[in-house]
Amino acid sequence: MLEYLFGNKNVEKIIIYLFLHEKANATELSLSFGSSLDPIQKTLRKLEEGGLLVSFLEGRTRVFHWNPRYPFLLEIRALAEKAFHFLPTAIQETTYNVTKRKRPRKTGKPL
Fold it and tell me: Is the pLDDT of residue 98 over 60?
């Protein structure tokens, strides 16, 4: 849907994913989208060079999140929210894993 606006389908997917999860790494994104790692890394680098995203290291993993100083951040996030709500439910659940836990439950913790 936003692919034509941004000129790249990966940009649309990354923006929507970050709207939902706030931060992500390239491997997590490529597994979620079912695509290869290289185009995702190039797109993340391009978005970081453009100032929309910033990255930091968590251990040996480079993690990307929104740049709070980006002047159009609120507008981009609003656009991502609207685009997400217009996606079919099947794509929302399979691609963006809204309810997926990112780490295992602590051993012995009651449900």
Answer: no
